[in-house]
């Protein structure tokens, strides 16, 4: 695992991470091979959610990147089982305070779901990514850490 850093916890939201989200590596290669433009990644805040089995993206990101669904899946939410579209994306944690060596996932299947956050977010960082990390959450000091 790489080095460790800390970020403050936003009390109203819980632990959030700024992620650079973009098209999957495979889709970028396919677009470039036919001479099409590739939209650059966006820096967006994601809530860390150990209860989410997969990473979830908001519908506005699907629209922004003009993503086409790769599959449909049933997923359990607090409100019951729902059908979700799944999309190929990439993500990176660029904040060196959090992970000194950086973290990039070039091909990740993320579920689309409208979430009602206190503050706007891009989605939930789920266990599909967190399973590759060790996380510590220190509520009294208001910080959390990820080890990659």
From TrEMBL:
InterPro entries referenced in this protein's UniProt entry, alphabetically: Aspartic_peptidase_AS, Peptidase_A2_cat, Peptidase_aspartic_dom_sf
SUPFAM superfamilies found in the cross-reference section: Acid proteases (SSF50630)
KW Hydrolase (keyword) present: yes
Protein keywords: Hydrolase, Protease
GO molecular function list: peptidase activity
Peptidase A2 domain residues: 44-129
Pfam families: Asp_protease_2
Listed GO biological process terms: proteolysis
Protein name per Swiss-Prot or TrEMBL: Aspartyl protease family protein
Species name: Roseateles agri
């Amino acid at each position: 695992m790489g080095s460790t850093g800390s970020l403050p916890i936003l009390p109203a939201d819980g632990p959030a991470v700024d992620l650079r989200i973009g098209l999957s590596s495979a889709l970028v290669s396919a677009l470039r091979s036919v001479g099409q433009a590739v939209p650059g990644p966006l820096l967006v805040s994601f809530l860390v959610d150990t209860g989410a089995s997969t990473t979830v993206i908001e519908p506005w990101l699907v629209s922004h990147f003009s993503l086409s669904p790769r599959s449909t899946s049933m997923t359990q939410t607090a409100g019951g089982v729902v059908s979700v579209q799944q999309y190929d994306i990439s993500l990176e944690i660029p904040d060196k305070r959090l992970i000194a060596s950086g973290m990039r996932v070039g091909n990740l299947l993320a579920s689309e779901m409208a979430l009602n956050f206190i503050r706007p977010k891009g989605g939930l960082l789920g266990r599909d990514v967190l399973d590759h990390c060790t996380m510590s959450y220190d509520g009294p000091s208001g910080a959390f850490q990820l080890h990659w």
